[in-house]
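User: quick one
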Amino acid sequence: MQETQTENTRDKKREQILESAALVFSQKGYRLTRMNDIAQKADMGKSTLYEYFTSKSDLFMAVFGWLKTRYQVTADGFALNGKSAQENLSNLIQGWVASLVDMDVHYQLIMEFWAATASSEVKDQLKQAFADIYQTYREVILKVIEIGMKRGELKEDLDPEAVSAGVIGALDGIFLQAWFKPEMDPTKISNHYITTLIQGLSADPHRS
Amino acid sequence: MQETQTENTRDKKREQILESAALVFSQKGYRLTRMNDIAQKADMGKSTLYEYFTSKSDLFMAVFGWLKTRYQVTADGFALNGKSAQENLSNLIQGWVASLVDMDVHYQLIMEFWAATASSEVKDQLKQAFADIYQTYREVILKVIEIGMKRGELKEDLDPEAVSAGVIGALDGIFLQAWFKPEMDPTKISNHYITTLIQGLSADPHRS
Amino acid sequence: MQETQTENTRDKKREQILESAALVFSQKGYRLTRMNDIAQKADMGKSTLYEYFTSKSDLFMAVFGWLKTRYQVTADGFALNGKSAQENLSNLIQGWVASLVDMDVHYQLIMEFWAATASSEVKDQLKQAFADIYQTYREVILKVIEIGMKRGELKEDLDPEAVSAGVIGALDGIFLQAWFKPEMDPTKISNHYITTLIQGLSADPHRS
Amino acid sequence: MQETQTENTRDKKREQILESAALVFSQKGYRLTRMNDIAQKADMGKSTLYEYFTSKSDLFMAVFGWLKTRYQVTADGFALNGKSAQENLSNLIQGWVASLVDMDVHYQLIMEFWAATASSEVKDQLKQAFADIYQTYREVILKVIEIGMKRGELKEDLDPEAVSAGVIGALDGIFLQAWFKPEMDPTKISNHYITTLIQGLSADPHRS
DNA sequence: CATGAATGAGTGTTCATTCAT
DNA sequence: GATGAATGAACACTCATTCAT
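Assistant: Done. Structure below.
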């Protein structure tokens, strides 16, 4: 257990770098960030970064992974519980909204990753990663919808694929607009919007 | 009229540069595009670009403007016509979806601008520009909804701000997901989704 | 003929770089030479070098080619003339010695290339190039010796391969030693040595 | 005797480093060798190397010394024995050739040192060292020749300086060529060449 | 007006060396 | 004594921009 350097120490330093990198990437963007900036922020020599990450883009991706882990929304168990599809949908979505809100200071950083999917060296990796994240959520929602349809809670002529994609998309899009217009309150909008949507989905629209 | 160069010629050349730049930015991304690439594609000397645009970012912004003009969805007249809110919404949305679909080859380019709002030198200009675009659309939808509510076509407890933001957001988000997952058909999903949504919005849900 | 830049100008500039590079490489060695040094010596911006050569090692190899051309010993016609093998050998060797002496200021540079065959990125290219040069010379000498043997001018039990390699080797080795010990006069030593050697080769040793 | 570390241990470790360094320098060349590589090969920590050698170049020079010691050709006693100059020359040369052949795996390494005389930080030290080695050999051969001339075994009009330099040079040059052209057999060529040369040197050329 | 040529500021990365334990 | 960790100096190369023609 007594290694040359405690794993603890190493992990701590790694975390320190990750956090500094997150901050600087967030402020300056990937392209405009210099390794030096990160090193300074992390209060260490530039080359030390290379002891922990092989390159700038490696570090960038590591920050992505770090963020992903930090804000992972666990969507397990939603499909199979006893609640109604409406309730489950609402909870699921609220969970996701909460996580988006929670990211708060990291939203700029997420934009950065998002932006990097358009060009950058890591565009393919990132695109895949994003695709996976979306895929996961879409599948959970999909299942909830399908079950709701079977149970007769939701309309029978829905296209579950389209709806799940739309729900995810709507939330994303709302937060995106809030990103462009800071005075918007994406949480409030999301909630209201979702309520309305669920009514559109429900078999018996008089039900809340 | 007998200038050193006809305005005509100058405009033509400008257009030529713009198109070449659009193409190259789209293929390589802003960051990875070299002025040289654009010059070659436009079949002219590198320095000539600087006769028409002061800098790379200036050119980038010019391409943005060019694209914006090209795909401007005219939303005029929707609010005041005699159709129902549902119809107007549907048309509006279909118009926008059509324009998104129409962009087709330029979608990658749009991503590029989108990405540039996150960092880049022109981030502020672009952010503002996007905000304006969204704002414009939101306002039209907003108006349609408000009128629909007044007329009793739509539910009376809607938050028009939230709904309009949500509608725009949903469409954006759907196309975004399709960008990550090419086998998706964003048009079909949008249409289905919108139908469902409008039902949620309608005062009398049995109406289509 | 009136191109964007006269080929003349371009060649002149190229030559200028080559000469500056030759000088700096010669003084500092490949490894210790910075592109900047060369640019300064050539009185131009660093990046201009890259307009003419793709990389440091490319430039290095170009200097090698330049030097090779400059000091190419033409060994043509030696085998087939009417002179005796002894005379031809003597002339050939004197020609080579003369060229070695002529290199004079470039000897250090040649060492540099020689050294680069041991490691460096271009080691393989250079090794091949040197091998070719040696091969060429060896073959001329070989032919002269074979003809001399046929004619009975040289001993009949010679191994022409061995002798030609030895002759070339001896000259090289002598200059090498002079490189280590500047007070040596490699020309004098070569001449004397060769005289002795030719006597050893001759069928009738009493002949000069 | 009970030091903090037995001299024995220390020497052993030093040797271990030296051997590892020799190997790595030989494979990658001075410039491309990293201290890390050597440390790993020697199965110890990087910094430990600095306990035994002050710097990379110091280590390089130490390897040179190590190699020099290992392959030192003892030329003592050749001048003063009862054998003929021809025999002594032949033996001397064969001894040297044997040592060159013996070096075998180390030939690449020798090239490396040789190359380092051209530039590198240690160029002056190395140049001096090589000069000394050559000087030593030349002197032995010189003496043998002078005695041979006095005894009338060798021609009387020889320039002993030139001949000794030439002999050494020839051998070096032959091995050099074999280095460039691996299919050559330098031993065979050396022997043949030397035989011929000695005949040229001999007062009575009919003697073998 | 058009442009080829020239440029220098800017940066990721390597690696010998030092230092704290 | 031994070593893993930390470091900063060093450097090739790129590319937006300018300039001379």
